[in-house]
Amino acid sequence: MPQIPGVAKVAAEIAASRLENPQPFNGHSMVGELRRVLVCSPRTAGWDRPERAARWQELGFLHPPNFEVAQSQHEALCRELESAGAEIVELPPADELTLDAVYAHDASLPTDYGLILLRPGKPNREPEGKLHGTFGSMIGIRRLAKITAPGTAEAGDIVWLDAKTLLIGRGYRSNAAGIAQMRDLLAPKSVEVISVPLPYGPGPSACLHLMSLISLLDEQTALVDLPWLAVETVELLKARGFRFVEIDYSERETLACNVLALGSGRLLAIEENHKSNKRLREVGFDVRTFPGSELCINGSGGPTCLTRPLLRE
Q1: DSSP state letters, the chain
Q2: Which of 88, 184, 189, 278 has a 20 to 30 Å separation from 271 between CA atoms?
């Protein structure tokens, strides 16, 4: 099992590392070398607590969670992250967390200027943004801003096309008011925020993020679920020179499009998606995998959802 440092130890290590790297965080890239990443294990999210596990159907899980299997799969994820050179920090437990907290990506957005605390569109996840901010301040990540009501925004809808361009999917989790706040927050930093529509898909009770349909693999390559992307999104990506790798559509329901870039052509994917992973390897990517039947597929969150990158180089 990977050793996840406690808050005090993490804070001390980050403080010491500032002698070489004066900033313990950054943002604006989804494909650089992953150096530090925040996770929230099933244990921390309370998958082993009966009162939390009992809410599985309400939260949109496919079946009651199996804590032991999910925890084992999360440990496999962490081993792959560590082997890729990433330092892992874990969100502390809190009474406000629900099963969804394991998908640590969604509640905050690191930038080069500080952390933006997001306001998830799924009501049970709203406290997570504040918890990310509190923990961030403990490990040296300053807060830039937060999204406030009636705005909603989840990082699963947010894609950095480059250091100055942020794509946000408008759907049931990130609304027009939230996107407008993001635009106002980042305009003074010369960051362009572009809103693109998301399809209705399975409807408001399901989790359909922009990153359910696209994962950036490197600066010019995107893994896509092409039939589900809006025409204007496809045209925008093509106009910016992106090449597409399409998933095998038989693996759509097992989150084949949700792949985490580790940097230098390395990717982390769910091992169950054999056909899509084969396609990625055939075009030259180094694909590492971990089992995701319980941790990912049951709750509709893949490798990107499970990780909140804090530092890339």
Answers
A1: ------HHHHHHHHHHHTTT-S-S---S-SSSPEEEEEE--HHHHTTT-HHHHTTTTTTT-SS---HHHHHHHHHHHHHHHHHTT-EEEEPPP-TT--GGGG-TTTTEEEETTEEEEP--SSGGGHHHHHHHHHHHHHTT--EEEE--TT----GGGEEEEETTEEEEEESSSS-HHHHHHHHHHHGGGT-EEEEEE---TT-TTS---GGGTEEEEETTEEEE-GGGS-HHHHHHHHHTT-EEEEPPGGGGGGTTT--EEEETTEEEEETT-HHHHHHHHHTT-EEEEE--IIIIITTT--HHHH-EEEEE-
A2: 88
